[in-house]
Amino acid sequence: MKNPLLAMIEKRKEGIKTGIQSYCTANELVIEALLEQSKRFDEHILIEGTANQINQFGGYTGMTPENFRDYVFAIADRVNFDREKIILGADHFGPLTWANLPASQAMSNARELVKLAVKAGFRKIHIDTSMKLADDPVNEKLSDEVIAERGAVLIAECEKAYQESGHSEMRPVYIIGSEVPIPGGTQEEEAGLQVTKVADLEATLETYRRKFSEHGIIDRWQDVIAVVVQPGVEFGDKDIHEYDRVAASELCKCLKKYPDIVFEGHSTDYQSAGKLKQMVEDGVAILKVGPALTFALREGLFALSMIESELIHDESQRANFIETLERVMLESPANWQKHYHGSDYEKRLARKYSYSDRCRYYFSLPEIKAAINKLFANIDSHEIPAGMLRQYMPVQYKRVREGLLGVRAADLAKDCVRECAEDYNYAVKINYSI
Description:
Elements: H1 4-13, E1 20-24, H2 28-38, E2 45-50, H3 65-78, E3 86-93, H4 103-119, E4 124-127, H5 144-164, E5 173-176, H6 198-214, E6 224-229, E7 234-235, E8 240-241, H7 249-253, E9 262-265, H8 273-282, E10 286-289, H9 291-311, H10 321-331, H11 344-353, H12 366-380, H13 386-392, H14 394-401, H15 409-428
Parallel strand pairs: 1-2, 1-10, 2-3, 3-4, 4-5, 5-6, 6-9, 9-10
Antiparallel strand pairs: 7-8
Helix pairs in contact: 2-15, 4-5, 5-6, 8-15, 9-12, 9-15, 10-12, 13-14
């Protein structure tokens, strides 16, 4: 079976400016929403997990690659989405999670991680070896040589795992490159975001190709379909660096020399639909998005919480989702403390509205899940006046009026995620129409 991502490369070689969005999330409601909205397209959907989220030790979700696969497939079965249409992706797989360990130990963990991912059926593997490990020189830049050597070691491990699993399943494809933004957005507001230099891109490709040869896997170079670059997009706490195709033009023109690869853009969250489409047209054909999806869900949950406060006069009967989330984040600050700065007032606003969306790390906690379920139950036990729905959820109000959306609370919340996903559908799909 041919990997659908190779088919995407073939289409682009024919001049068809198509691409694919990579949904990087482990949130159950978000995945459910994405699968539901994808059912109208007879195409594959790409869902990824990061090395921080899923690894052999559980990650912050408590899931291994095999657990994540089963988790996504269970959601797919629930919404009647064809499992065969799901491509599982591994994001930032490498020694990232163990960067505080010596290279020998960190790479040993990384080899085990990529092996488990391939054996679990992950078929898009982003190999990230761009970070320094504990015994790397502190005052020296990590060289292309070291990055590519470590990356080739991990890809060789992937190939070994694929061979051990037999040939009945599609072959994995690989994403390489060291121009990797911090997962989840930058922590600092950058004065001038630097687009990847053509010389750096070519050095990455040349060094990796040589390392493939040294490790005896040069025949698998054809499965390297993309390089992670910095095309000039990023987001931080308050700001969005929008795509500037003029600034990225030299980098994108360079792709003419490499017709078998595309660029993968990370941190494309919050770009407009038009900017996303420009990126795909220019060669950034794989668009990674994560925090914007849970940000959209959070917007929907906040709107429903405001509706709840109008519908239910007895405060003790409310879910009080907004207040519960704030309290839990204050009680367990580890996931936002290093990311949000300023006065108490500024940090309070950031906990709710920051683009980096650190509240997503709390959505799987039992207390937050219970608050969401109670919120949905409270809303569903009342009839939302049309004018109230328009006030707090104007986009969903229009879809309800047109008969395209029901008024169940969960559906209203998930539709906020769908709205975000539609920008990516517009960008990557040929002849897109709602």
